[in-house]
């Protein structure tokens, strides 16, 4: 009978070289502010939660925040959810927000990348502004996020929600986060800005807004901007819609403030 040691089995459980595509290396992107300043951010190389792109809605949100910073941002407390690279949060801090909190799904790669971007942007941020980074799952308790606010603050003045409402299955959780995080004030606002990258889902995406109205909010469309180019050239669907960024303000309904 042959000795078992005579048989060479090799490494049966080792994947052959080249079986998996190599992970993409992180890349960098630049956002050019209206002021002429440049914010440079790192993007994760490849990620199922899309932290590897600088989205049109994020760029447009950042320009909107910069343009309206005096009344919208300066001295205010700001929370961004679904931040990815976090450009809008960084711009809010640069433009003088008292507190900016940048969040995305509590995945180590995403959170670590956001933290890196916050650190390299620090020289642009004035001393009276603070920028924080944390992981946050939509609909979860917001007490850990509220802990970043100055003593006495009861909620955030501004919520930045860029390209998050595409996930209609998460609409209830997004509404829940708004209810818990947005300060009860007529001046508080959630900026909901998005592009229908899959235009055939636009009707489902837009169900977010009547749902918000049913849950104590008032919705106002503030702009519709046509970008020069689509973000994904080879994607199907109406090219004009895929180039369009829609912007909405969501505020507390009057009966919620009484």
TrEMBL record:
EC numbers, comma separated: 2.1.1.-
Protein name, UniProt field: Protein N-terminal and lysine N-methyltransferase EFM7
GO cellular component terms, semicolon-separated: cytoplasm
Superkingdom of origin organism: Eukaryota
Protein localization: Cytoplasm
InterPro entries: EFM7, Methyltransf_16, SAM-dependent_MTases_sf
Function: S-adenosyl-L-methionine-dependent protein methyltransferase that trimethylates the N-terminal glycine 'Gly-2' of elongation factor 1-alpha, before also catalyzing the mono- and dimethylation of 'Lys-3'.
GO MF term list: N-terminal protein N-methyltransferase activity; protein-lysine N-methyltransferase activity
Main EC class the enzyme belongs to: transferase
HAMAP family per record: Methyltr_EFM7
One GO-annotated biological process of the protein: methylation
């Amino acid at each position: 009978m042959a000795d078992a040691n005579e048989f060479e089995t090799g490494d049966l459980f080792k994947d052959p070289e080249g079986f998996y595509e190599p992970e993409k290396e992180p890349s960098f992107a630049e956002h050019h502010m209206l002021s002429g300043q440049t914010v440079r951010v790192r993007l994760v190389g490849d990620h199922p939660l899309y932290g590897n792109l600088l989205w049109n809605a994020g760029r447009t949100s950042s320009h909107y925040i910069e343009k309206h910073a005096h009344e919208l941002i300066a001295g205010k407390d700001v929370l961004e959810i679904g931040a990815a690279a976090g450009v809008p949060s960084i711009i809010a801090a640069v433009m003088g927000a008292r507190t900016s909190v940048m969040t995305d799904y509590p995945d180590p790669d995403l959170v670590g990348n956001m933290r890196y971007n916050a650190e390299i942007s620090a020289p642009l941020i004035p001393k009276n502004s603070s920028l924080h980074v944390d992981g946050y799952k939509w609909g979860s308790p917001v007490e850990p996020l509220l802990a970043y606010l100055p003593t006495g603050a009861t909620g955030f003045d501004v919520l930045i929600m860029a390209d998050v409402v595409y996930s209609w299955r998460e609409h209830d959780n997004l509404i829940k986060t708004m209810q818990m995080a947005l300060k009860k004030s007529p001046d508080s606002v959630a900026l909901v800005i998005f592009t229908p990258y899959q235009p055939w889902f636009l009707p489902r995406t837009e169900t977010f807004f009547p749902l918000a109205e049913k849950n104590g909010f008032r919705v106002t469309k503030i702009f519709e901007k046509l970008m020069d180019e689509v973000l994904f050239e080879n994607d199907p669907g109406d090219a004009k819609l895929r180039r369009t960024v829609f912007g909405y303000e969501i505020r507390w309904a009057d009966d919620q403030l009484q």
